[in-house]
Design a protein that fits this description.
Elements (H helix, E strand, L loop, with lengths): L1 H32 L2 E2 L3 E2 L5 H20 L7 H19 L7 H23 L4 H29 L1 E4 L4 E8 L2 E10 L2 E4 L6 H20 L5 H18 L2 H17 L2 H32 L5 H4 L5 H14 L10 H8 L9 H35 L6 H20 L11 H24 L14
Antiparallel strand pairs: 1-2, 3-4, 4-5, 5-6
Keywords: Membrane, Transmembrane, Transmembrane helix
Membrane topology: Multi-pass membrane protein
Organism: Bacillus cereus ISP2954
Length: about 450
């Protein structure tokens, strides 16, 4: 008994490094990338926020690397990471034909480097459930904080009008002035809290609403607190008037409850493999199909929001002229800025990727997505009906639904494979879910007896 207690104490000591590292990482990501202050300026301006994020995650990785010398890498982790390494390598190679060669290479390093480091930190975590529950609570509190702040400024603040598309809603509390940008979509006001953009707020609320629901269903928060926080965040999501964000949350709810339904799982088992077999083939032709469909004006499809229709037309021309290789990773922003169309954002992950790294790069990205989702679904199929770990599989299925919902959200946004908050959160959910599934498999097979002694509740 004494030896067993010593093992548990030793494991707790080592794992505290990982737990604290992930806590620091998630909080720093929010501070570095989300709040805007003083006339909608970031709290920490780019590129200094990029450098700070890279340095923080690198230090955390080094600290965990030195304290986790006997790390084991599962087959699932290596498969997913292998696909991501190939994608990152191709993005780096695209700097050779980019007009901004050094910037393309540097951006690849500054984006993929922290992702690889974060994946390692997650992989050496031996109490991934505790880490996930803590991350859920952080995301819930972030969304609730932004929602309450938005509603507070909306009710008690003043409006400063700039033009027919944009205004500033602000409130002054002594020496402190808190601002939120307000956009117009027809006659509808779209509020953004302190994120500076209602679309940014919508994906933060998408994640916070999802994690709030997961915490409630696994009985990690009280019913009263769930009802109040969930309703406030839903109201805030509605005030963003982000159609993609609202639809993405609907997709999350559908997938989450479908994955936890036995009959639905049987249908999913049959369909998922069909999807995976044809997805890679379809991805090869995706760039060409997009280019053909978007040769004409896209204003009706895009509703011409923020001029994205013009941006889509220009990117479609880029795809036609650089079909296979693209113009270089993370270079579409400079291209759109040079064309002076009033927008410097692709507003579509799939269109932007195809324009930047060609149909080859799009195929590599979709292959990574399909390979990872295939791994997650395989694990879920095998161990779904084990009631002993029902709370863990509830978290697992919720993470899958979040990952897919974010992919849907990116149909009219381009936040993944960029240096921002959503990008790192998305990859965080991917690798924590893979790690959670691997740990549950070990427990089922009796390969991790120490982990069985930890609580099943958060």
């Amino acid at each position: 008994m004494k030896d067993k207690s010593f093992v548990l104490q030793k494991m707790d000591s080592k794992n505290s490094y990982v737990y604290n590292s992930i806590f620091i990482m998630l909080i720093s990501l929010f501070i570095l990338y989300v709040p805007v202050v003083n006339s909608m300026q970031p709290l920490i301006k780019a590129p200094y926020s990029y450098y700070a994020n890279f340095l923080i995650i690198f230090v955390l990785w080094l600290f965990n690397f030195l304290n986790s010398k006997n790390a084991n890498f599962t087959k699932e982790y290596l498969q997913s990471m292998g696909c991501l390494y190939v994608l990152g390598l191709y993005c780096a190679i695209s700097s050779f034909w980019s007009e901004i060669q050094f910037e393309t290479l540097w951006r690849t390093f500054i984006i993929f480097g922290p992702i690889f480091a974060m994946a390692y930190i997650v992989n050496v975590d031996r109490m991934i459930e505790k880490t996930l529950i803590a991350s859920y609570k952080i995301q819930m509190l972030v969304g609730l904080f932004l929602a309450i702040l938005m509603i507070f400024i909306k009710i008690f603040g003043l409006m400063m009008w700039f033009n027919d598309e944009y205004s500033l809603n602000y409130i002054t509390l002594g020496p402190i002035r808190i601002e939120q940008a307000v956009y117009y979509s027809g006659a509808t006001l779209r509020f953004s809290s302190i994120t500076g953009n209602p679309n940014i707020l919508s994906y933060i609320l998408l994640i916070s609403l999802a994690t709030t629901l997961i915490l409630f269903l696994r009985q990690s928060i009280k019913t009263f607190y769930f009802i109040i926080s969930f309703l406030i965040q839903c109201y805030a999501l509605f005030l963003t008037y982000s159609r993609t964000g609202i639809l993405a949350f609907g997709i999350f709810l559908f997938l989450f409850f479908w994955l936890n339904n036995s009959r639905g799982m049987n249908r999913l088992r049959k369909n998922i493999w069909k999807f995976m077999r044809i997805s890679l083939i379809l991805s090869v032709f995706a760039g060409g199909i997009i280019a053909l469909l978007l040769q004409g004006s896209n204003q009706r499809l895009s509703l011409d929001l923020a001029g994205r229709g013009k941006a889509w037309d220009l990117l479609a021309d880029v795809i036609s002229n650089h079909f296979f290789l693209g113009i270089g990773f993370n270079s579409s922003q400079e291209f759109l800025r040079e064309m002076n169309v009033g927008v410097n954002h692709a507003h579509s992950l799939y269109l932007g990727i195809t324009a930047e790294i060609g149909v080859i790069g799009l195929g590599l990205f979709l292959f990574f997505v399909c390979c990872t989702l295939g791994i997650l679904i395989q694990q879920f199929q095998k161990y779904k009906n084990n009631l002993e770990y029902k709370n863990q599989w509830l978290m697992y299925s919720g993470n899958i639904a979040i990952i897919v919902a974010i992919l849907f959200h990116q149909g009219t946004e381009f936040s993944l494979l960029r240096n921002n908050y959503l990008n790192f959160l998305w990859f965080f959910f991917i690798f924590t879910t893979i790690k959670l599934g691997s740990d549950l498999i070990k427990r089922e097979n009796g390969g991790d007896p120490v982990a069985k002694n930890f609580s099943n509740r958060g």
